[in-house]
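Teaching note: in complex prediction, the entire set of molecules is handled at once rather than each chain in isolation. The prompt given to students was simply: 'Predict the structure of this complex.' The entities are:
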Amino acid sequence: MIRIAISGCGAVTQLYYRPALQALCDGGEAMLAGALDPDRTAAKRLCDAFPDARPVGSLDNLLALDIDLLVVASPPARHAEQACAAAAAGIAVLCEKPMALTVADAERMVAAAKSSSAPFAVAMVRRFLSQPRTIREMIAGEALGKLQRIDIFEGGRFDWPIASPAYFDPKRGGGGVLEDVGVHVLDLLRWWLGEPDTVRFADDALGGVAANCAIHLGFGPTEVAVRLSRDWYRPNAYRFTGERGWLEWAIHERDELEQGSAGETVGAIVPERDGQCAAGGYEQAIAAQLRAMTDAIRGKAGGGLVSAEDGLQTIRLLDQCRQSRVPMAMEWL
Amino acid sequence: MTRIAILGAGGFVGNRAVEMFHLGGRRQVVPVVHRAAALALASRFELEGRVANALDEVAMARALSGCDAVVAAVAGPPATIVGMIAPLAKAAERAEVRRIVYLSSQMVHGYAPEPGTVEGSPFPRARQTAYSRAKIAAERTLRVASAAAGIECVILRPGIVYGPRSRWTGGIADDLLAGDAFLLSGAAGVCNAVYVDNLVGAIDLAIDHPEAAGAALFVNDAEALNWADLVEPIAAALGIERDAIARPTLAEALASGPSWTQRKVIPPAKRAFRLLPRGLAHSLRKVRPSAPAQADPPQPHFSHEMALLQSSSVRLLGNGQAERLLGYRPAVAHRDAMRRSLAWLRFAGYPVA
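The expected output is the structure of the full assembly:
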């Protein structure tokens, strides 16, 4: 039985890891040994749902629980320190996104992962949704002909149940729309298309963290325009335009992918669930990712997991965005 | 420099007040929201946001500590609109806040007010909604509670507040794109509107002017506007011809159904397979049409609220109280306000030409 501990008992743990852990524990495949959070009440609340789990007050105490896997779901500023300590102790790591706040921290994590005998993965949960997998196959198979462009909009009022305003503290990191949603988008784009040749980035931060941003990327002949927003809803969609047709993923809104040609909708594709991925819900995708991690610990394939090296490339791209940052035009301001 | 708490800083007007006060540099801004996530917009600035439930007097007093005045721009259901007032007044007293500027609404005079309505006119019993009844109750409670607490209060009654992030700008664009926008036929279509920056300008004045204490003031743009002045510039920017905007009568608008037929005509799903590469089709569980074929033309869904508002024929000019007591003169002309609103629509991702 895989012994798991979790660092960070905030929203992602309460909403997603808790039911995923529950399913693994109910199936007798794993057990939660302990949890760590500066808010001891949150750690206790999580542990109360698992008979063998106990809240602890320090990372050292958590790693001393004879665990096989540490899920790092703490604030991003703590990821590198905690993940590296676990890896150094020979404990497998599943680290929530963003993997790290700086390229240097991510490189440190890669080094720790390489020197560890245990698996190390970055939790990029969208790769466990069925739609991105189908999109990847369709792009690789040139289902739309040569891919000309991708237009992405993800937005709406920010309603993630964060615990405190500290989430938005630039020093703690992770609080801006780029680090939150953008890291998912950049990871998927890299997964689908490889590394971009060109990067342009603009956001609306004015001394704090951005609520809106625009990213323009060039992947060879394919242009990508990404618009992320926390203040106004527009239909959330990934639209792929190729020589022979188009494909649309209405993320968060529909499970199906719509496909058509020359402006005409011809059908909706319901991507297959193959055991490694989940249609629609993030809850199922987190569970699939966690199961892949326990498989990897058992020496099985662990398909779909994002390696530390792969995660580092996304952090580098995130950093490129920040380095090329210009302010968004806001004439009304 | 005065320190101003802005309740409802995550909302449309509250957020704009945060932006203008902070960027203006004359005021120290304390954004106050009911949950931490609502600080997403205020956190674009280096500001200390505070979290407090508007119904919790103790938490609110902590949030208001050190502030000279509070701007109450909290949105919410009727129970919150009314229920927050007494705790707010007590919290302001505890925190030694000097003045509350409360954002009410011209809706307290009904969605189609009587001719001659001024700020002091009695609230009509007819033509009220749950929202406007709540605002009436909130105003009355505020007067009593603030007097008991020894706090000054100023009540501002804007009408339709438009501009960046307004439902009366973005929402109209959504309706236009969906084919649901309309201008009532046979109605005057008077729109008592104020551009959000002009409203924040009035709030700014209301924080300080001693003569305004206890007053309730209409806040409008300088121009006499109709609904067409809000809808048609947005339509033009979206490439929608003026003639393409529906012109139902009030009865027709109110009779429109709650949902509307999907417009797309979907050919057989099997055509989708032809676009897929060999070897991929087997990995798809199924391919099916997005929607059944529809022979009938689409039926628009007209907002009943919009229809009732457009039925108004009365301009709420008031009796110049805002100008006399605050020195309020709208700084942004409607033409410029629409230019800025269209710039925001482009920013927000609308297909503005």
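Point out the following to students. Chain A has a mean pLDDT of 93. Chain A touches chain B through 59 residues (CB under 8 Å).
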